[in-house]
Design brief:
The chain has 219 residues and is of the alpha+beta class. The protein has helices spanning 15-25, 58-64, 86-97, 101-112, 165-169, 197-214, and strands at residues 2-10, 29-39, 42-50, 71-77, 117-124, 127-133, 154-156, 173-178, 184-189.
């Protein structure tokens, strides 16, 4: 089974090698590594790992904690496709999407940004229109979304007042960015970790490119 492990590590040479060695000694394979943020002497890394069937998830935490200075921010199951060229593939696909750009974003952004689901939506706080949604996206009917219409990227933590109680209990973390023609892309994941500013900037960058491509004449 695959897991997404978010670590806060000392920002010094060799630290990722030490983590990789610790995981390897525990029989755990690393599939991909994303460095999300660096600053203040620390780095935040997302590591997708493949856990053997005879191992328990707690063994991941035990393994990495043997490396001095490493902190585990979160650990959750990961069901996305395991590849290392997610953003490049999305950008290539945008050029071929034509009128299906919204559907492409909803389907692919969870994979690119380690999310659980995505929705392309628009409207007003109490009159929401869903233009496209990934398979795992929750039902938005009846929800009041006070951040619509969206004019700038925004982090939407699970403790916000508008978030349904059930979503808060599931720690559904979200972020959103403007897309095209008054619409926005909402990306979420259950169980955390909370999205960071660097992830929000990546979302805004990708939706901005997608909006530009959507306005180009057909090739």
């Amino acid at each position: 089974m695959s897991y997404l492990l978010r670590l806060v590590v000392p920002d010094r040479p060799g630290i990722l090698g030490a983590v990789a060695t610790a995981l390897g000694l525990a029989g755990i394979d690393i599939v991909s590594v994303d460095v999300l943020e660096r600053g203040g002497g620390v780095a935040v890394d997302d590591i997708v790992v493949e856990l053997p069937e005879d191992r328990v998830a707690d063994g991941l935490i035990t393994a990495v904690m043997t490396v001095p200075g490493v902190q585990v921010e979160s650990l959750r199951p990961f069901s996305g496709q395991l590849d290392t060229h997610r953003e490049l593939e999305l950008l290539e696909s945008l050029g071929r999407a034509g009128g299906g750009t919204a559907t492409l974003l909803a389907d692919e952004l969870p994979r690119v940004l380690h999310g659980g689901w995505a929705v392309v939506l628009g409207g007003t706080p109490d009159d929401v229109t869903v233009h496209a949604a990934s398979e795992a996206a929750p039902e938005l009917t009846g929800l009041v979304l006070p951040w619509l219409p969206l004019h700038a990227p925004v982090l939407l933590p699970s403790e916000d007042d508008w978030v349904p109680t059930m979503w808060q209990e599931m720690a559904v973390e979200m972020m959103a960015a403007p897309f095209d023609g008054g619409t926005a892309v909402l990306l979420g994941r259950s169980g955390g970790p909370a999205f960071r500013r660097s992830e929000l900037l990546r979302l805004a960058h990708l939706t901005g490119i997608a909006a530009t491509v959507a306005q180009l004449p057909p090739a």
